[in-house]
Amino acid sequence: MGSYIAKRIIQAGALLLLVSLVAYAIMNLAPGGPLAVYLHNPQVTPERIDLLRHQLGLDRPWYVQYAAWLRGLAGGHWGDSYYTGRPVLEMIAERLPATITLMLSAFVLAMALAFPIGALAATHKYSWGDNVLSFGSFFVWAMPAFWFGLMLQMTFAVRWHLLPVAGMHEIGNTSAGDLLRHLVMPAAVLGVGSVASWSRYLRSGMLEVLGQDYVRTAFAKGLPRRRVLNRHVLRNSLIPIVTIMGLDLSVLFSGAVITESIFGWPGLGRLFLAALNNRDYPLQMAGLMISAALLVFGNLLADLTYAALDPRIRYE
Predict the structure, then answer these.
(1) Residue span of the signal peptide, if any (predicted)?
(2) What value does the mean pLDDT of the chain take?
(3) Is the model's pLDDT at 102 over the cut of 80?
């Protein structure tokens, strides 16, 4: 197992290096650039723009800039923001706790809802309950996150005054209860898509396992239904959904960009969205690398979970 993990880490490093190279090349070859906002400002002379371009190192070829950025990344310095002048890692460290809180809450909420819904739909195949749950899953899957967020704000915040409209805390109130009230709606918006996806995969997996001979044998031997479902059906149905759950780590991170913008959540999503609007290359590269790293890590975590779920799987 140790050699397999080491091999996967080396492969992940090579993949992330390739992703960074392609992303940096596309970003720097795109028309405009971080100084485009000054080009049509009559108060900024071409000489000042050339000076600023030289100070930021933008007058060098993109591959030279990439090599400098890569050396800084290896040394723990992800560059300085073109827009604020602050170190990128410092800006990320300020926003990271809020995003982790939101992502973990959405992940836990998705697990808490998807597993009962998927199991209920599988054990009551083609019943009215299964049809209702299937329709709800497909509806939620196709529902735009920004629309759902606005509907929640209109209903629970504006009309019923049950929850705050946006933000992470009320001014002067940093209690856990206040954080939970602000967290309910953004976590629901971020996690609802995963609920729909995971419940459908779990339903399909359980239906396939329920048709296996060993499950019918277990029922024929008189084992309790709950024990058969928990020990034989559910566990053997988890491998497909584990794959989706691992890949959804990066999906949750990407979805946080929209969710945090809707609810004014002070996390990385809003930071990277502002970097995109300002063409802040160092911050954009940080966001791309974090998203790619989450995708690779989620895939590795899913592979390792396979061995825990199915003893027949061995990694050499």
Answers:
(1) none
(2) 88
(3) yes
Q: Give the domain range for residue 60.
A: 2-74
Mean pLDDT to the nearest integer, 278-306: 89
Q: To 10 degrees, the CA torsion angle through 259, 106, 243, 231?
A: -160
Give yes or no: residues 97 and 66 share one domain.
no
Q: Which class for 237: exposed (0-12), middle (13-18), buried (19 or more C-beta within 10 A)?
A: buried
End-to-end CA distance of the chain: 6
Domain count, the chain: 2
Same domain, 134 and 282: yes
Distance between CA 250 and CA 293 in Å, rounded?
8
Residue-level pLDDT at 305: 82
Q: Collapse the DSSP code of 87 into the 3-class scheme (helix H, G, I; strand E, B; otherwise coil) and give the result.
A: strand
Q: Are residues 151 and 219 in the same domain?
A: yes
Last residue of a domain, one of 74, 101, 132: 74
d(CA 298, CA 302): 6
Say how many CA atoms lie within 13 Å of 31 toward its Cβ. Answer: 1
State how far the Cα of 98 lies from the Cα of 268, in Å rounded to an integer.
8
Based on the fold, state whether residues 214 and 178 are members of the same structural domain: yes
Q: What is the pLDDT of residues 225-239, one digit of tens each?
A: 888 888 888 888 888
- Interaxial angle between packed helices 88-123 and 176-210, expressed in degrees from 0 to 180 and rounded to the nearest 10: 40
Reported residue count of the chain is 316
Residue pair 237/205 in contact by the 8 Å Cβ criterion: yes
What is the CATH number for 259?
1.10.3720.10
Exposure b/e, 82-97, CB count within 10 A at least 16 = b: bbeeeebbebbeebee
Instruction: Determine contact, residues 156/75, Cβ cutoff 8 Å.
Output: no
